[in-house]
């Protein structure tokens, strides 16, 4: 599609991160030539890769990435700095304890520095020379953490010897996003631009793993060999700037180091306390950890213990990083789901671009919400995109059952009786031969689900095909591992119908653009930008009141007429053929 003109917009949709109490706007500060700046440039160049292009670079396993990130976080510290500080003198001071691998600054509730040493011993060396602050009339609770407060002995000696380059750590404003989308060369370019602007940066990812590592330090006081692992959006490659930080307390490794190496006639076991059920054990553990975070955790505020939920959790804000955190325990199926999404996101560059754009579209039209309710969730939308890409010809993504057939003995994984086995080595999965553009995929996605038989069919990414719904829920999407569960059971009929209506309307808008070819100087929103305008949903609602025939039926009939038109031939599978 030809380049389009840039319009001026006064009222734009809200499709940025949700606002929360105690959540700051981040600004990253780094210098040219620093590791942070180099990593950012590398990531930006990677984001501009041509759609569907094959990357021959060997891809790391999810477990390898997790291990490297965790080790990286364990030798990293977080420091609250004075507002005016000499970066050169700051680094020279810290280098007394060992060489520094990289660092960056960001603004939250003050100026913070994230510093990664080359060895963990450097962290211990710094801790040994750090004192507990004198609080005057108040009393400090001593805690040996990796979260420090740096004070100046002589503020006049500190000068800004090296200026810093600010870089936003939050999504672009709605106005800025629209300008970027309207200035793009094509719809493909629009989707890739949105992905680049919203995806987690290298620095934000490091800060997420560091936050988990700091919480692990607190939990280790009770469970010395535990691990606190991030899961969900923070690690599955589909997280956007500003998303929550989900983490779980992994206790499975405690006491298992030498379980298979015992010899002789004796077996030694730990003396432990017994409780009636696994759920009660989880509640007791999280209750204690919640108390520790509330009373002893530096920077942990607004702690809530939500222990009677289906999945008990502790919710809190980590004030320094600005993350809203949810802590559960032994949630290994959730981590396995994160790994599966990581694999799907890494197999083809179009996957993440599609997911980010569909999520943004849904958010712009209030199909999703940060408040629990009858709305479609981001996870459900991601499953729908994956299912759609499995249904292409040829498929862009393999089914979960196919990934299971590629697995070897090392990949076998049974969690709580559920078979979570699939191949973990990305390099053994053949890339798709499908070469469809993002523009075609976006149009076809809206057509596919605008005409999907939700009343009788279920979405199943294990087999990559529709199945009869096993229950009467309006929307049924099978949980990929706990197959008896419906991940969209909460969605109401009215919300599903709203999704279908908007999908049909969006498909119609894109088809009309193909037909009308708006002038580049028309100053009209086009492509993805047009789909994000709230007027789409509002005009549809007004039309329903004015006309006897529902808008969804009118659009469905129009799409059917387009499909049967000689200008838009279909292939034998009923799918449109684009020239």
TrEMBL record:
Biased composition (Polar residues): 562-579
Cofactor(s), names only, from the UniProt record: Mg(2+); Mn(2+)
Limits of the PAP-associated domain: 441-484
Keyword flag Magnesium: yes
Region annotation (Disordered) ranges: 33-69, 538-579
Cellular component per GO, a single term: mitochondrion
Domain Poly(A) RNA polymerase mitochondrial-like central palm: 187-345
Pfam families: MTPAP-like_central, PAP_assoc, RL
UniProt-listed SUPFAM superfamilies: Nucleotidyltransferase (SSF81301), PAP/OAS1 substrate-binding domain (SSF81631)
Domain of life assignment: Eukaryota
Gene Ontology BP annotations: RNA 3'-end processing
GO molecular function: metal ion binding; poly(A) RNA polymerase activity
Keywords: Magnesium, Metal-binding, Transferase
Domain called RL: residue spans: 62-130
Record-given protein name: Mitochondrial poly(A) polymerase
């Amino acid at each position: 599609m030809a380049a389009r003109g840039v319009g001026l917009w006064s009222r734009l949709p809200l499709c940025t991160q949700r606002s929360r109490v105690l959540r700051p706007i981040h600004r990253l500060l780094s210098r040219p030539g620093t590791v942070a700046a180099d990593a950012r440039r590398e990531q930006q160049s990677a984001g501009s890769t041509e759609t569907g292009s094959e990357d021959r670079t060997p891809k790391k396993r999810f477990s390898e990435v997790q291990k490297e990130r965790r080790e990286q976080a364990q030798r990293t510290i977080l420091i609250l700095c004075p507002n005016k500080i000499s970066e050169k003198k700051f680094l020279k001071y810290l280098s007394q304890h060992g060489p520094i691998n990289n660092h960056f600054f960001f603004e939250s509730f003050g100026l913070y520095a994230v510093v990664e040493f080359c060895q963990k011993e450097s962290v211990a060396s710094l801790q040994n020379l750090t004192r507990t602050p004198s609080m005057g009339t108040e009393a400090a609770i001593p805690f040996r953490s990796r979260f420090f407060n740096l004070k100046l002995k002589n503020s006049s000696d500190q000068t800004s010897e090296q200026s810093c380059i600010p870089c936003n750590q939050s999504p672009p404003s709605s106005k800025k996003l629209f300008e970027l989308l309207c200035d793009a060369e094509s719809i493909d370019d629009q989707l890739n631009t949105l992905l680049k602007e919203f995806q987690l940066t290298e620095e934000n990812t490091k800060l997420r793993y560091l936050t988990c590592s700091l919480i692990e330090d607190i939990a280790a006081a009770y469970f010395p060999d535990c691990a606190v692992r991030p899961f969900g959006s923070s690690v599955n490659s589909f997280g956007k700037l500003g998303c929550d930080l989900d983490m779980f307390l992994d206790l499975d490794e405690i006491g298992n180091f030498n379980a298979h190496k015992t010899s002789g006639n004796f077996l030694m076991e730990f003396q432990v306390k017994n409780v009636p059920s696994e759920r009660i054990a989880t509640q007791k553990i999280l209750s204690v950890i919640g108390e520790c975070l509330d009373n002893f955790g530096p920077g942990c505020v607004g702690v809530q213990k939500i222990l009677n939920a289906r999945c008990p959790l502790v919710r809190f804000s980590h004030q320094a990083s600005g993350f809203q955190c949810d802590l559960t325990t032994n949630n290994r199926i959730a981590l396995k789901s994160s790994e599966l999404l990581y694999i799907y996101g890494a197999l083809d560059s179009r996957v993440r671009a599609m997911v980010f754009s569909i999520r943004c579209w849904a958010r712009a039209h209030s199909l999703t919400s940060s408040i629990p309710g009858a709305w479609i969730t981001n996870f459900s939308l991601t499953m729908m995109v994956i299912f759609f890409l499995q249904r292409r010809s040829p498929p862009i993504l393999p089914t979960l059952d196919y990934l299971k057939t590629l697995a070897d003995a090392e990949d076998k994984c049974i969690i709580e009786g559920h078979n979570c086995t699939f191949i973990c080595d990305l390099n053994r999965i053949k890339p798709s031969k499908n070469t469809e553009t993002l523009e075609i995929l976006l149009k076809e996605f809206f057509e596919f689900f605008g005409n999907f038989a939700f009343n009788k069919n279920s979405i199943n990414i294990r087999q990559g095909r529709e199945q009869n719904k096993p229950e009467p829920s309006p929307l049924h999407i099978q949980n990929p591992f706990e197959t008896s569960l419906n991940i969209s059971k909460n969605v109401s009929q009215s919300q599903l119908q709203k999704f279908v209506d908007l999908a049909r309307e969006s498909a119609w808008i894109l088809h009309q653009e193909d037909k009308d070819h708006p002038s580049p100087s028309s100053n009209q929103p086009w492509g993805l930008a047009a789909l994000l305008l709230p007027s789409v949903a509002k005009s549809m609602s007004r039309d329903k009141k004015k006309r006897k025939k529902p808008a969804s039926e009118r659009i469905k009939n129009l799409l059917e007429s387009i499909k049967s038109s000689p200008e838009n031939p279909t292939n034998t599978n009923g799918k449109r053929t684009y020239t």
